[in-house]
Structure formats: structure tokens, C-alpha cells
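So, is this right?
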Amino acid sequence: MTERRHVRLALPDLGLESGRAAVSLWLVPTGARVTEGDRVVELAVGGATIDLEAPVTGRLAACLVEEDEPVATGTVLAEFVAEPEMRGGS
């Protein structure tokens, strides 16, 4: 049996003086399948928006921050359950 790996997505250091941003919009719902690199959340940073990507291929297990909620650098925004890696040739 393969153990599922949980991966967290945290707000990276965006070089902001205040170190703060706000979740503007979740681009995928909880439980949705994502591919590594898919855009999953949009952040409002000053007058700009920044998208963060899924860190793994798998499912979005939990959105830990509500839309319009302010967040600081290092805040965990979401948790993903990674799919087991495919092995062998096709």
C-alpha cells in the first residue's frame, strides 16, 4: 500500500515591506484534482495580483485561508495530497 504524501502551500517571501497580501480568489475548489504548476490561488498584493501554483500533482485537500483574508509571509494557504508517482514504462 502506498502512503499518501501531504504537501503544504505557503505564502512565499514576495519581497514586500509589510510582508502581507490577501487571498483574492481560489481558482480550484477543495477536492479538485490538480497538476503540478496549475494556478490554484490568486493573491492581491498592493495593486497587483499574483497567482500561486500547485506544488504537486494530486488533489487540493484543504483551503486553509478564506477569500479576502489577509495573510503574512509563511502562512500556510492550502494542503494537497500528492498522487503516487507512476512507475514503469508505457
In short: The mean pLDDT is 89.
